[in-house]
């Protein structure tokens, strides 16, 4: 089923509605409905794009969209899909576990693009049930210029594949090193720019309601910050990016980005400077 909207939904209102999905109780026969939504002629506002570049630290290719921005811009469509009554899981219990992004052609702020988001697939794992969401941008000629895949997890008892071994710490081959501190208010500063008002990112009090001792950083902000640092080191903007989120970044936080620039890509990992936690690992090309 395909729906077409005239414009992007307002993100803040969607998060209020998301709280109402807590009543959803998926059974053992959980399935992902085949639903997609489209919005024509989407163009970022210059002020939002400038604010996004600044808070994430993107310095290269100022006339182009950073590789993570189209996914962030389409986030209200992901929320819209998951708020549909056919979607089986409560939104506030979902865990963002991985992403991949492909910039198939340079995208500029002066161009308008048709955006498509869809619920793509689902599978049982040892942790619960994973759900994939696909995002695509097409130019005026109908050519796909951007494609992204996001996977979220609904934790539940499952007969899925056996538990995988705990991932090892990043290999010493990640020779480059950048450290930075993450302030306690980064979630509140990023939320209106990124359009993600999930209460786990805003205040310690609201995060505790969902089981976290303190607020946690937005995964898409910390990924974008890491990508921007690696881009600057490489001297060129990313065309591909993948990430596996592992452990949340509690606010405030002290982190170290380890990476290596070799061949056509850069492997990277974001680590805690105060513990042995690995927040995420990924590759940028």
Automatic annotation (TrEMBL):
InterPro entries in the cross-refs: HotDog_dom_sf (IPR029069), MaoC-like_dom (IPR002539)
Top-rank taxon: Bacteria
Family matches, as Pfam families: MaoC_dehydratas (PF01575)
Domain annotation MaoC-like: ranges: 188-263
Protein name: MaoC dehydratase-like protein
Originating organism: Panacagrimonas perspica
Organism classification: Bacteria, Pseudomonadati, Pseudomonadota, Gammaproteobacteria, Nevskiales
């Amino acid at each position: 089923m395909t729906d077409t909207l005239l414009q992007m939904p307002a993100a803040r209102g969607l998060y209020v509605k998301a709280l109402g999905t807590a009543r959803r109780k998926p059974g053992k026969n959980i399935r992902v409905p085949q639903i997609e939504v489209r919005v024509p002629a989407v163009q970022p506002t210059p002020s939002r794009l400038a604010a996004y570049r600044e808070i994430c630290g993107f310095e290269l290719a100022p006339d182009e969209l950073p590789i993570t921005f189209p996914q962030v811009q389409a986030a209200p469509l992901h929320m819209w899909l998951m708020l549909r009554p056919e979607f089986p899981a409560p939104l506030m219990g979902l865990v963002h576990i991985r992403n991949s992004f492909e910039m198939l052609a340079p995208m500029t702020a002066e161009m308008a693009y048709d955006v498509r988001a869809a619920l793509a697939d689902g599978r049982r794992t040892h942790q619960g049930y994973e759900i994939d969401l696909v995002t695509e941008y097409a130019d005026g000629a109908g050519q796909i210029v951007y494609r992204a895949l996001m996977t979220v997890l609904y934790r539940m008892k499952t007969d899925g594949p056996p538990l995988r071994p705990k991932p090892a710490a990043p290999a010493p081959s990640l020779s480059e090193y950048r450290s930075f501190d993450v302030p306690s208010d980064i979630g509140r500063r990023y939320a209106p720019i990124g359009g993600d008002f999930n209460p786990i990112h805003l205040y310690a009090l609201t995060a505790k309601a969902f089981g976290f001792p303190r607020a946690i950083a937005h995964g898409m902000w910390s990924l974008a910050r890491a990508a921007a640092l690696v881009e600057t080191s490489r001297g060129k903007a990313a065309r591909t990016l993948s990430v596996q989120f592992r452990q949340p970044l509690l606010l405030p936080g002290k982190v170290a980005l380890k990476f290596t620039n070799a061949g056509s890509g850069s492997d990277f990992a974001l680590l805690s400077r105060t513990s042995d936690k690995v927040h995420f690992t990924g590759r940028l090309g």
